[in-house]
Amino acid sequence: MGSTNVNRRDLIKRSAAVGLVAAPGMGLLSACASGGGENENKVDKGKKSKDNPLAVNKDAGLEVVIFNGGYGDQYALDNHKVYEKNFGKVSHAKTQKIRTKMQPRMVKGDPPDVINNSGAENMDVASLIEKGQVADLQPLLDAPSLYDPSKKVSETLLPGTLEKGRFGSDKVYQLNYSYTVYGVWYSKTNLEKLDLEYPKTWDEMLAACAKAKKEGVAGWTYAGKHPYYFSFTLYPFIAKIGGQDVLKAIDNLEPNAWKHDAVKKAFEAYHELYAKGYVLKGTPGIDHIQSQTQWNKGKALFIPNGSWVENEAKKTTPKDFEMAVAPPSSLDKSDAMPFETLWAEASEPFMVPKQAKNVEGGMEWLRVMLGKQSTQNFSKQVSALTCVDGAAEGLDLLPGLASAQQTLKEAGDNLVSPRLHDWYLELHKDKVGGAIASMMAGDIEPAEAMKRCQKAADEVAKDDSVKKYKR
């Protein structure tokens, strides 16, 4: 727990972050309750063979919990059927309340075998790993791939996938299944109605928003209730202006990282969207679904989002919408990185709890999901890439996914992958997200937003109870 010189409020807050407090009224549990001890009900291992490289007990059941968000859960139900051909029955549950539902079970030492730890209520995986509650996935990575049997699973994954699953060690604890392209999403159709092309510079962006405003259309909307969505364009914008090292300094909690000139320029540019009235009225009070719906209705041209949006918003997306994604507009010619610079990375995290009853089965379920049948089913069904290299090639892709794939190709090596959201969840979502939310709502100026971000980062850097990471 770090230094003992903390008050009771701080102690409870820190304990909750690592899963020691399950819910209000449950009280503070002992450290050994979350220390990663063995589940007394663990199933016996099966016999290792060519067809069963992970030694799964074929008669044992498996419990899988899926985040019911942008990708839904049908892809997982389909994966269950493939798994059940050779192994035991799968018990399935879906929820948007991952932390509320799963953290008490992690504390009690009776977690499911696979958890899709995603969404606004995801658990702090860094803290869970620190407490020994997450299984090392190396057996899975060393197993033969069901996508290409001539390779190990680890050899079939896109660059950066393994790194995303590491938290300060060589071990991989988390499998990020989807490969997400973050950026500015728009409708080609709606831009064409205004005789516009996607703005590649900030001056062009402001001009596009001004033209839209004259026609009664807002330039931007976003998930005001989940302001960390803005990081999907702001983080790569900061890197584009000042270079990769600015994001590295932010990730590494370096002093004055948030005071860098690139951060100042990025914040001031986005604040200008608010100041000139280019943000859809009411945006600060709406969530991701509501913002996407308004965007689909043509109320706003641009929205910061990830490539799950095509599936998540499909019920409200017009057939002729022609969804597309682009990198954030360049600021000006002084930018350190080219326009094509993009945030793209393995995302949608899955983990196998160390205390699960059927750890081997959990890893096998993930191995099946990384096979050709399930990866291609995922891409066709939810319009998203997977972390398996080349798995979507040859498929008939929807417009948004085709655009994401093309944008990723054009970026080449100009990819950024910030880690703040992985390593310091509360800092990223609540503190930085909160500062950006206040700035974009017009409550504070960019300078104050920078100050708040830096103060929050400094507090984490000085907190001995929080494990630190470097890149």
TrEMBL record:
Matching InterPro entries, A to Z?
A: Bact_solute-bd_prot1 (IPR050490), Chitin_NgcE (IPR022386), SBP (IPR006059), TAT_signal (IPR006311)
Compositional bias annotation for Basic and acidic residues: 39-51
Span list, region Disordered: 35-54
Which segment of the chain is annotated as a signal peptide?
none
Presence of the UniProt keyword Nucleus in the record: no
Q: What is its main location?
A: other
Q: Which UniProt keywords apply?
A: Signal, Transport
Q: Where in the cell is it found?
A: Cell envelope
- Entry similarity comment: Belongs to the bacterial solute-binding protein 1 family.
The protein's name: N-acetylglucosamine/diacetylchitobiose ABC transporter substrate-binding protein
Give the species this sequence originates from.
Answer: Streptomyces ovatisporus
**Name of the coding gene:** ngcE
